[in-house]
Each structure stands twice: as C-alpha cells, then as structure tokens.
Write a structure and sequence with these properties.
The chain is of the alpha/beta class. The protein has 2 domains: 182 residues, ATPase, nucleotide binding domain (Nucleotidyltransferase, domain 5), CATH 3.30.420; 179 residues, ATPase, nucleotide binding domain (Nucleotidyltransferase, domain 5), CATH 3.30.420. The protein is 39% helix and 21% strand. The protein is built from 14 helices and 13 strands. It has a 6-stranded mixed sheet. Strand 9 and strand 10 form a beta hairpin. The protein is globular and about 60 Å long.
C-alpha cells in the first residue's frame, strides 16, 4: 500500500520551488512525480532583499511568506494532477521554507535561523497536513540546524562495501560523508555553491545562471583572487559548521574584489573554481577514503564545474545523482518528504554527528490539514 509524502524545497539559489511526490511503502524511497515553478521576479527580489537589513522587514517577510506559500501550493497541485493522486492520499507535505537568515550560535549558545514560510496557508490551500520549521529544534539542542540532508543521503546512497560522499551544490554547497556499513555519518557546509556564480552572471550578462558553465569556461582563473577568497576563515573552520548568504553574499565578494580591472569572465572562472576547490579540499580533508562523489543540486548541471571537480579529485569517481537513480534537482525536495515522514512517525530527523546537537531530535512542527 502506498505511503505518499510531498517534499518542497526552495534553496539559497532563489530560482524557484522544486517538489516531489514520494512513496515510502515497505521502507523504500520511490519518487512518483516531480514538478517545479520559478519564482516571480518580484518575489525573488524581495527574498533576496530580506537577506539584508532593511526597512519594515517584518511586514515584508509576512507578505513574502504568503506569496511563497501560494507558489508551493501550485507545485503541490501540479504534482497531484500529473500523478492522478487525490490530496487525501498524501500523508503530509514537508515544506522547508526559504532561509533568509542563518546565524547558529553566533550571538549566544543557541543562535537563530529564519525561514520565510506560511505553513498554515499551504495546508489551507492544499488540504494536506504540512510539516515545517525543521531547523529550530536542532538549534535548541545546541546544533547548527544544518545541514539536514545527510541522513536522507545516507538512506538513499550509502553502501555497505565502500564509503561514499554526496555533494549538494545549491546556493551553498554541503557535503555528506557516508561510511561503509554502519559507521558515523558526517556532513557540513563547504561554502558557496552557486550563489556567487549566479550573482556574477546575473550582474554582468543578465542571465540567472551560467548555463553549463560556458561563460566560466571562457575565462581564466585568477590565482591571487582565488587565494584571497579562500583565505576567509570559514574554509579552515572544523565541522560541525554551516553557513549561508549571511556570509557569502555580494557584499563579501565586493570586499574581496576591491576595484577589479579583470575581465568579468575571468572573475566568473575564479568564482567557479572557488566552489570546486573548496568542495574538493573539504572532501580530501575530511573524507579522504571516499571512492565516489555523488553530486546533486543545480551545480550538477554545470558541466564546467563538474569537470573541475573531476580534475581536482582524480582518484574519486565524480557522478551526477542521476546516475544513482535520482535527478539532481529532485534530491533536496525528496529529502524534505523523508524528513516530514520521520516527523509524523516520531523519529529523529537530525544527525548529532553532523549538526553538533547534544542528541538526535524529532524535527519540525505539524500544521494539520
């Protein structure tokens, strides 16, 4: 008998919403459908603006949450229509929301994280229970609140015969280290994924992303600039650690650039190399035994970035998650369907070995249908 959940994800790339319909019958994970919707430009601009201090933020955030909930609901409706499934057949929707601030432990021992969302409105519009606010309980237990996907990566990709690493390249890049057998799973944010690459692309050639990494491939890496970027203390910090646009944003980049006279294409090449080299360095430092690196998220579609990862990791098999059964853009949404299921079952969703929490905790809150 089917055990259906929907997972919704809008990541730090701020390009839109990905949704999956997943069946967890018999303990397996089978994606039954995928749908996506881009953000309207006004909503994207507002969410980007809410990453920075500004006027009347509470009012703007509330209205953005309402609009985001309506986009989520449209994706849910598309999923149900495409699959021919009634809303009543879905146990719950896992809706992470849009992270606009992430400050774990920065100001006191708990810190805070903020995701724009309106789970009540999603439940009202869809007629399906909603699970949201996944990060807060982990923070309350002394953790980073992120990343939350390593547990799902382990359930989906771990092998008994060899260690595997999973690299999710969204706006921020996060790495999951999955040991062979029943060892301890590790995971953390490596640093910027697509966030700076996309920003530079939008600013200089008017495109939301560097399709296939072609623009970056036309430039050359600037060694001095790359060294300045990699000198940020975050890259050398030991796990557990997590980050976001609070740190790696256009203001941070402008401070590193100073007054550049370099070609924009060369800076794009350097930003792409920053993502590739920081991810590769973290794998070699913390997961040197990994024989396979499975890449998901939008970065897996950037052929130039994938080529740079393969060049920097010659002893590692670098593959797209599509080659392991789940397309790159579906993985994170599927993870939040998985997390929603664990919440309803009263099962922990975090891994203390990843986030640094005192213990595993049941994550999220439930908004009934």
């Amino acid at each position: 008998m089917a055990e259906l959940f929907i997972g919704l994800m809008s990541g730090t790339s701020l390009d839109g919403v990905d949704g999956v319909l997943a069946d967890f019958a018999n303990g397996g994970i089978a994606v039954q459908g995928y749908a996506a919707a881009p953000f309207p430009m006004g909503l994207r601009a507002e969410l980007m603006g809410l990453n920075s201090a500004g006027g009347n933020e509470l009012h703007r955030a509330a209205l953005a949450g309402n609009e985001l909930a309506r986009v989520y609901a449209r994706v849910v409706q598309q999923l149900l229509e495409d699959a021919g499934v009634e809303a009543a057949a879905v146990a719950a929707i896992g809706a992470h929301g849009q992270t606009v601030r992430h400050r774990p432990g920065e100001f006191d021992e708990v810190g805070y994280t903020l995701q724009i969302n309106n789970p009540s409105l999603i439940a009202e519009l869809t007629g399906i229970a909603v699970v949201a606010d996944f990060r807060s309980r982990d923070l309350a237990a002394g953790g980073q609140g992120a990343p939350l996907v390593p547990g799902f990566h382990s359930a989906l990709f771990a092998r008994d015969d060899q260690p595997v690493a999973v690299l999710n390249i969204g706006g921020i890049a996060n790495l999951s280290l999955l040991p062979a057998g029943s060892g301890t799973v590790l995971g953390f944010d490596c640093g910027p994924g697509n966030a700076l690459i996309d920003h530079w692309c939008q600013t200089h050639i008017g495109q939301p992303y560097d399709a296939g990494g072609q623009w970056a491939a036309s430039g050359r890496v600037l060694p001095d600039l790359l060294a300045r970027l990699l000198a940020d203390p975050y890259f050398a910090k030991a796990p557990p650690k997590s980050t976001g646009r609070d740190l790696f944003n256009p203001t941070w980049l402008a401070a590193q650039l100073g007054s550049p006279d370099a070609r924009p294409a060369d800076i794009q090449a350097t930003l792409t190399e920053l993502t590739a080299s920081s991810c590769a360095a973290h794998l070699l430092r913390h997961g040197a035994g990994s024989q396979t690196l499975i890449v998901c998220g939008g970065g897996a579609l950037n052929q130039h970035l994938m080529a740079r990862l393969r060049a920097l990791l010659p002893a590692v098999e670098v593959v797209s998650s599509a080659e392991r059964g789940l397309p790159p853009q579906e993985v994170e949404a599927a993870a939040f369907a998985w997390l929603a299921r664990r919440t309803l079952r009263g099962e922990p969703g975090n891994l203390a070995s990843v986030t640094g929490a005192r213990e595993s905790r049941v994550l999220g809150a439930i908004w009934p249908a």
